[in-house]
């Protein structure tokens, strides 16, 4: 026989247990080309470079 909970967990008790799971900070790294902080393994939104190569051309007028 499999163990089962004796009583239903309330929404508040369940929420208090899960509350700390979603508040972790994002891991940011500096871009090698412009030094702007960005998410790892993504194209830099500021300059459009990834791993030293230009992937996306970004207009300089946005600066």
Automatic annotation (TrEMBL):
PANTHER family: 50S RIBOSOMAL PROTEIN L32, LARGE RIBOSOMAL SUBUNIT PROTEIN BL32. It comes from the Bacteria. Keywords: Ribonucleoprotein, Ribosomal protein. Residues 1-19 have a biased composition (Basic residues). Belongs to the bacterial ribosomal protein bL32 family. HAMAP family: Ribosomal_bL32. One of its GO terms (cellular component) is large ribosomal subunit. The keyword Ribosomal protein applies. This is Large ribosomal subunit protein bL32. Transmembrane segments: none annotated. Residues 1-20 are annotated as: Disordered. GO terms for biological process: translation.
